[in-house]
Each structure stands twice: as C-alpha cells, then as structure tokens.
Design a protein that fits this description.
The structure holds two protein chains of two kinds. Chain A is 34% helix and 39% strand. By secondary structure, chain A is of the alpha+beta class. In chain A, the strands form three sheets. In chain A, strands 2-13-12-4-7-9 form a six-stranded mixed beta sheet. A four-stranded antiparallel beta sheet of chain A has the order 1-3-11-10, with no helix packed on it. Chain A has a three-stranded antiparallel beta sheet with strand order 5-6-8, with helices on one face. In chain A, strand 5 and strand 6 form a beta hairpin. Chain A starts with 10 loop residues before the first helix and ends in a 5-residue tail after the last helix. Chain B is built from eleven helices and five strands. Chain B has a two-stranded antiparallel sheet with strand order 1-2. A two-stranded antiparallel ribbon of chain B has the order 3-4. In chain B, helix 1 packs across helix 9. Chain B is globular and about 55 Å long. The mean pLDDT of chain B is 85. The chains are: A alpha+beta, B mainly alpha. At the A-B interface, strand 5, strand 6, helix 5, helix 6 and helix 7 of A face strand 1, helix 3, helix 5, helix 9 and helix 10 of B.
C-alpha cells in the first residue's frame, strides 16, 4: 500500500494510485466503515443566453465521527500570466510573463473545519488540498527562489479569487444524522466566470488527521443554443464571423441614422 | 438583466454596455474620435478580458462611426476626398506600424516604450489643443487676420506637387500632405494599438487647417474604414470579437453618435476643441495615476489563448 511515491510531474499516476489505495482501504475496512457517497445535483450546467452562474449542491452519506473536505477542480493545464512590476523605478506596468504548469483553472475547497486543523501536511500534499499544497504541486517559471515562488503564487491566488475561480470555505457543510450514518450537504455558488468544461468533485473523509476515504463525481458545464453557435463560429470560422459582425454594425449604424432622419433629427 | 457573452466567457448586466455605448457614442458624434481610449479601459474594469475588450470595441466603432458619418454627411460635413487621402496614408502607415511593433518586441521592453509613447502623445495633443483653443477663444477677432502671414513651412508646403483643392474643407494642399500625415498617425496608432482619432483630429485642425465641423465628419469617415479592417483582422486571426457585447454596445453608441452630431452643430468649433482637449487631458492624468499607484492585482491574463 505504501509502495507509491509522490511525483509532481506524474500527477495522474498519483491520482490513479490513490484511487487504488482508497479502494483497497475501503475493502480492508469495510467492516468498520460506512461507505462514503457523493452526489452533485445540477451536474449538467448549461450556458445559455441568460446564464449568470448557477448553484451546485454536493451531498452524500458519510460516517458520523469524521470531518469532510469537498474539492472541486478543473483539469490541470498550462497558464500564462502577465506580471506587473516597476519599470524605471516607479512606473507600474507589465514587465514579464509568468508560466504555470499543472495548475487548475478552477479550484474550490469546502471543509467542515479549517483544513490545517483536521489534516496533516503530508496528506494535504499527497491529495493537493489547500493553497500551500497546491503551490508545491504547481510548477512556476521564471521564479528566482522559493520565496519568490510563494510571492507570485499568492498573487496568482489573489487574481483567481478576484475572478471567483478559486474559493475556500469552512463550516458550511451541514449534517443530518440517521441511524449510524450522516447525510452531509453543501450548496455552492457556481460562478459564471467558470468556463465550459468538465469539473471533478471529490469528497474526502478525514479522521485523526488522515484521509480515510474519498468519493468522486463530475460536473459538466456546456454551452448550448446561440451561445454555442456563436462561440463555435468565432473560433472555427473567423472570417465569416468577422464579416457578419461588420455587416451588422454597418446596418445598425445606417438604420439608426435613417430612424433619426425620419424622426425629424435633421434640421 | 444579465446576458452571457460567448467570446468574453462572462456575464454582464446589459445596462452597462448600453450605457457605455451611449456615452462614448455621444463623444464620437461630437468630436470625431472613436473613443477607444475611453471604452477599452472601461470594459476591462467591468470584467471583460483586455484582448476581447479592444477587439470588440473596434466592431462597435464601425456602427457608431457609420451612424455619426451619416449624420454629418446629411449636413455636408464630410470631406470624402480628404478622407480618402488620409486613408491611403493611414493604411500604409498601419503596415509599417505593425512591423515597428515586431522590431520593438525583438529589442525587448516594448511595453514600456509603447505605454510611454501613448502617454506622451495624449498629453501633447491634449495640452496643445487646450492652450491653442483657449488663446483663439480669447482673441477671436485677431484670428481673421491670421491666414495672411504665411510661415516658411507653409510656403514650402505650397510648393509641393499634386496641389489639390478640397472643396468641402475649403483648403488647398498637396495631396501628399494628408497622405504623409495620415501615414504618421497610422504608424503611431498601430504601435499603440489604438484608433488614433485623438491624433487625427489635431492633425486635421492644425496642419490641414480644416474647419472643426468638417474635421469631425471626415475623421469619423476614415475611422469607419480603419475599424472595419481592424475588426476583420481581430476576428480572423485572434478570434477576439464578442458579437453579443458588440451589439449591446452599438445599441447605445449608434444613438449616442446621432445625438452628439446634432448637439455638436449647436457648439462653436473652439468650444468643441477645448472640451475634447479637456477629455484627452483627463484620460492622460488617469493613465499617469494608474502607472504610479500600486495596483491591487499584480497578475493579469496574458493576451491570446
């Protein structure tokens, strides 16, 4: 069970192994543990013309005497940011670029208590739970040293939180007890800034500072109707899209001009 | 009411773009500027990614300047011949400007040079227009005597070939002059990534000596063509034009441009100049503040996808 090692660059393997590990754990402990389940209601979010964000409720069954952490992430990837700094000593402007690897565009954590209080550091890093663990997991360049990396990672989190793509909360998960089991429930705001894609929702069950179980589900965000048609056309048929945009703008300009003439605007 | 923007990938209250369109369209109809120097930063402030903001604004300006050109044309304030000559220059200048950016980027520190050039140009154009229109408003009567004493530069310009009479503007110049100065503005506009209306207006007023009301109409006419080109290139190469946002903006700006054109006829040329000068100076000061105050976020999304 302890044969796997954490390799930052091979996160998928880690995820896979930790899944195996969880399954093994589950089989091993099935006599003493209730099965952890997860459900995301509203798991197909559709972006239509009037979309202004949504809500996702995550619920399931857990053991009674455990803490829970709900993590929602998008697939990891590469991101490029512009860095602001002082040019010529006193003028703030873009002075460089920052490259981030293995970084999720979306990262939300909701836990029953503060994560540092219920989970030990090794576990946080193993499952990439919390900003310090995420910082360790993410590759950044160019950074001069560890403190430089920390500084820019904090700025990155600030930027993401500002656009609602990163979020943290504790104490918002509610429980209702039934027999020996607990039903947990949390309602999360789904920000309209989160782009279309597939999101992974994981619930971790925590006891004695260790993760003892986890369960996963997915939330799919999709564009539909006019929005899907327009964004598809902008990406795949730029020339036609541009020509249509120009013709509509010309038509609108002339149209309004005519209306104003008829309305007696010219005298 | 909120609408989702398919390219900006964000949601916006429709009153914001319609209101911004109305305000910037009004300025466009009044002064003959595209208003990109106001619109783009405002859109970024409301959460639109910067690349999408600039590209979509150029699409919106197509509508506003069509509306504005139409309104000015009805009262005979568009000098098409002058507009064409400026366009020829602007087109060639734009090609050189794009190469210029490549050279600047290769040398490094391009952003610094571009930003400084932008602040300087805004400041100089605004300050010159402000001081000049103040002076000419103070001594309105002296102005009539002005054309009689010609400077050496003016005589040199008169001796150039291809002398052409521009009927609507009531001036005679060598056709090379609008082409060269149009080209100069085209280079700067391409380098700074702006439409350049705030530079074209002073060039027409002070170098081409056109009457202010014809300047506004003619400037809008040539902005229209520039923005058609830019919109197409942005949609084709960068996929950055947000159609829904552009429609919301043009709902306001086409009407604003009409109102501006009507309102502008009631103002004197000098008054128009001084108000435009003040707006340009205010924007300059705002940019200087932005450059010197510590920003709340030190990172921003890099351009392109």
């Amino acid at each position: 069970m302890k044969k796997f090692k954490i390799q930052n660059s091979k996160f998928k393997i880690v995820v896979f192994l930790s899944l195996c590990c969880t399954v093994a754990l589950l089989l091993y402990c099935s006599s003493s543990l209730a099965e952890l389940t997860i459900n995301a209601n509203h798991d197909h979010i559709t972006i239509d013309f009037f979309y202004h964000g949504s809500t996702v409720s995550v619920s399931g069954i857990s053991n009674q005497d455990v803490d829970l952490i709900v993590k929602i992430t998008s697939p990891e990837g590469h991101q490029v940011m512009k860095e602001k700094g002082k040019a010529a000593g006193f003028l703030w402007m873009n002075v460089g670029t920052l490259n981030l690897e293995h970084v999720p565009n979306f990262y939300a954590l909701h836990s029953t208590k503060k994560i540092e209080d219920i989970l030990n550091k090794d576990e946080m890093e193993k499952y990439v739970i919390g900003y310090p663990a995420l910082e360790k997991h993410v590759g950044m360049s160019p950074v001069a040293n560890e403190s430089d990396k920390t500084k820019w990672f904090e700025e990155f989190v600030k930027f993401k939180e500002d656009s609602k793509l990163y979020a943290m909360s504790s104490g918002k998960i509610s429980f209702s007890h039934e027999g020996g089991k607990s039903k947990y429930y949390i309602l999360t705001q789904w920000p309209y800034q989160a782009p279309p894609g597939e999101y992974l929702v994981t619930v971790y069950s925590v006891k004695d500072k260790h993760i003892i179980e986890k369960a996963e589900t997915r939330v799919v965000v999709k564009q539909v109707g006019i929005i899907k048609m327009l964004s598809g056309m902008a990406a795949n048929n730029g020339a036609m899209y541009g020509i249509i945009s120009i013709i509509i703008a010309l038509g609108a300009g002339f149209g309004v001009g005519m209306v104003f003439r008829k309305g007696g605007g010219a005298h | 009411m909120y609408l989702y923007l398919p390219v900006a990938l964000t949601s916006i209250n429709i009153l914001i773009p319609v209101g911004l369109g109305l305000a910037v369209g009004l300025l466009s109809g009044l002064f003959g500027v595209g208003g990109g120097f106001l619109m783009t930063p405002l859109l970024i402030m409301f959460g639109i990614p910067s690349t999408v903001a600039a590209a979509t604004d150029s699409n919106q300006i197509v509508a506003a300047s069509t509306s504005g050109t139409y309104a000015h044309w009805k009262v005979g304030n568009v000098d098409f011949k002058m507009g064409f000559h400026l366009l020829i220059g602007g087109f060639v200048g734009g090609l050189f400007g794009v190469q210029g950016i490549k050279i600047l980027r290769a040398m490094g520190n391009a952003d610094f040079v571009i930003k400084m050039a932008y602040v300087l140009m805004l400041g100089i154009a605004g300050a010159y227009m402000f001081v000049e229109s103040l002076q000419s408003m103070n001594k309105n009567k002296v102005e009539d005597a002005k054309p009689e004493k010609e400077s050496g530069v003016a005589r040199l310009l008169k001796s150039l070939p291809l002398q052409t009479h521009y009927e609507k503007s009531g001036v005679t110049h060598s056709a090379l002059i609008p082409i060269v100065f149009g080209g100069f503005v085209g280079v700067l506009a391409a380098v700074m990534g702006v439409g350049g209306g705030f530079l074209m207006v002073p060039v027409m007023v002070y170098i081409l000596r056109m009457p202010m009301h014809v300047v506004v109409g003619t400037s809008l006419f040539q902005i229209l063509f520039n923005c058609i080109e830019v919109t197409f290139l942005q949609a084709y190469t960068n996929h950055n034009v947000d159609f829904v946002l552009a429609v919301l903006l043009l709902l306001g700006s086409t009407i604003g441009a009409q109102v501006g054109a009507v309102f502008g006829r009631k103002l004197k040329g000098g008054q128009l100049k001084i108000i435009l000068a003040v707006i340009v100076l205010v924007v300059t000061v705002k940019i200087i503040f932005e450059l010197t105050l510590t920003p709340s976020l030190l990172l921003s999304q890099a351009g392109g996808h």
